[in-house]
Amino acid sequence: MKKKLISLMMAVAMTFGLTSCGSASSDGYTVGICQLVQHEALDAATQGFKDALVAELGEEKVTFDEQNASGDSVNCSTIVNGFVSKNVDLILANATGALTAATSATNEIPVLGTAITAYSVALDLDDATFTGTVGGNVSGTSDLAPLDEQAAMILEWFPDTKEVGIIYCSAEANSVYQVNEITKALADLGVNATAYAFTDSNDVTSVTNKACETSDVIYIPTDNTAASNTEAIANVVVPAKVPVIAGEAGICKGCGIATLSISYYDLGYTTGKMAAKVLTGEADISEMPIEYAPVTKYYNAELAEQYGLTPVEGYEVLE
To answer: Which CATH architecture has domain 147-261+297-317?
Structure first.
């Protein structure tokens, strides 16, 4: 009887030992992903981020808690506060609304932004003294393309342009920043720019109609609300034959003629590689500078044909 009891105890101990070993081997990292809104560019950034982390750490080592805020900043706060309560290992903040919510929710959990145009604007930093490293628990990647080059593109395609209408969402701080910068760049080229702001998706059509009335060309910055409403914009600009130069490829694909844009998948992938270094302790997030992606000139062949335009040399067809 005593031998049976000892054998039973040993079996139980081995069972617990195996359970413990299995638990340890399955230990990994939980990463919370807060994406501001669903559209092609941000979806690609999220996918690139996930693919990079899996490639760097292994699929069994990473668990993603992926949530979408449906364009609502209040939802962003709810989502990231949930991540903080769960004590996730890292937060990906995809777009500015997600980043500001995440940085307000925690100063301890590492936060990486992606698809952020200007961190100094998003985080209310002094642009004059911002060196490219946020510090603290925040870093990430930027989708900012050279705005002076985008301004020059307008004249590459439409050399007789005198009036450019800029449509954007006034609720997006990074869009406001781009509007101000491209207005200066266009002024240097002798082109007048007029800004037309919508507050949300409900007035995109009416604002676009107004911009078309007085504009030779319309420019749209990297703006999440615009990116989510390209069909509504196209339904106005295409019949009016007012061409759009876009700040990023997703908007261009939906309603634009040409863009100087990054690959959002590559941007997300770069962010994922940064995340792997943070999670494994290879890098200190407080010392990681903001990273950027290379830009490429693209044109929308289908829309260019509808407008009767000859493609400008040096532009790739947007797939």
So the answer is: 3-Layer(aba) Sandwich (3.40)
